[in-house]
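Worked example

This section walks through a single chain of length 214. The input is the sequence exactly as stored; nothing has been trimmed or padded.
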Amino acid sequence: MRPKPADPGVTRRSCLRPLLLLGLPLALPQPVQAGSQVEEPLADAVRTALSSAIHNAAPPVPEFSSTLERMAYLRWLVTASTRLRKRKTELEERKEFLQTVWYESKRAGLDVSLVLGLIQVESGFRKFVVSSAGARGYMQVMPFWTRVIGDGDPSKLFHMQTNLRFGCVILRHYLDREKGDLYMALGRYNGSRGRPEYPNAVFAAQRQWDIPVR
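Given that input, the structure is written out below as tokens.
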């Protein structure tokens, strides 16, 4: 197989990586989108499990086993909201978004900072962004996923919780396929498996959202 041409956004991102490593915000991020994500055959059992995960209608309300856990979450929410303020100026919108990211990340067994880093790289936290290949929304979910494990309506990928749920379930699926290798799983998510640019960009963005909670 011939190697794919380099993503023109990667060169720019490599120049911006020092800023990301320093934790400095970027005013107008240029997303590396999942437009090359590959539709692969799924075993019936896998398709059924993914479809079930998508259709679980539980509301995105975090639950905690103790007051200490709830207080740690609230501290995280305040810090994350402050960091996201320049990208999402409305407080209630910001709170709802972060609460849903927390819920869907935990539900899929993913690190919340990883999911926020991926969203930053994929869409720059823009709800309605569409890639040239048709990937949609915050986590740049390809429409074919709605046919494979959803109800076939790609317009729903502009709904916040739906988009975040699809994105988290898909990333969890790729992580399982790669036996826990996050680097390779991110490559699958982006359609650039084995190349370093996309995973490195997500890891760099993730550091900005690594918020200690005690």
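What to look for: Residues 1-34 have pLDDT under 50 and may be disordered.
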